[in-house]
Specification:
single chain, alpha/beta, Rossmann fold, 2 domains, 6-stranded mixed sheet, two-stranded antiparallel sheet, globular
Length: 207
């Protein structure tokens, strides 16, 4: 099966907590986020999500559980033929929800991330920072209990990185647990927060 990417990790993500996940490129940060998002299962060991062993959760139940976890991908994963509004609403739309039940929430969320004037714009017209904020809004539309962000400031300049960090901190103050995977030391130095450092597949935690 090839070499193990992660091994012998023991940690938890407390409710309403804020932490950085860091380490060199190739250390396994994205793999660990995928495990937390339940899109990947461990080859050995135990992962409990919301009190349940993820290896024993029926496949049909996984989508419902994943709605409690929001994820912001490193490459945004926006659909270029959909507007900002439509990209954020997409998770609700694919589940067949009536637009009348979520339109106000989507608009308010876009205003919260500073894109109230960009609702009808297509992604190719947006800057990197704007695309990242659309991705954050989409991850939050289901009001998750945990937000995972994979290198959310990797494609933006320092002022936008600080603005994005402020959004994550505000979200945390509102009660969502936040895990930010990053190698940006300057970003981490702005917040007195738990650091989870991956090196050679192993994890060290500094509170």
């Amino acid at each position: 099966m090839g070499p193990e990417i992660l091994r012998d990790l023991t940690f938890d993500i407390p409710k309403r907590s804020f932490q950085f996940l860091t380490g060199p490129s190739g250390a396994g940060k994205t793999t660990l986020l995928r495990l937390l998002f339940m899109s990947l299962q461990p080859t050995r060991g135990l992962i409990r999500s919301f009190g349940r062993d993820i290896t024993k959760i029926p496949r049909a139940e996984l989508p419902m559980l994943r709605r409690r976890v929001g994820i912001v991908f490193q490459d945004f994963q926006l659909l270029d033929h959909l507007t900002t509004y439509e990209n954020v609403a997409l998770p609700l739309r694919v589940r067949g929800k009536d637009e009348a039940t979520y339109r106000k929430d989507v608009i308010e969320l876009l205003k919260w991330v500073g894109l109230g004037e960009r609702i009808n714009v297509l992604p190719p017209v947006l800057s990197g920072g704007e695309k990242q904020r659309v991705a954050i809004a989409r991850a939050l539309i289901d009001r998750p209990e945990i937000l995972l962000a994979d290198e959310p400031t990797g494609n933006v300049d320092p002022p936008m990185a600080r603005r994005l960090l402020s959004l994550f901190l505000e979200l945390n103050r509102l009660g969502t647990a936040v895990v930010i995977a990053t190698h940006d030391l300057a970003l981490m130095d702005q917040v007195d927060a738990r650091r989870m450092i991956l090196t050679d597949g192993r994890l060290d935690i500094y509170d």
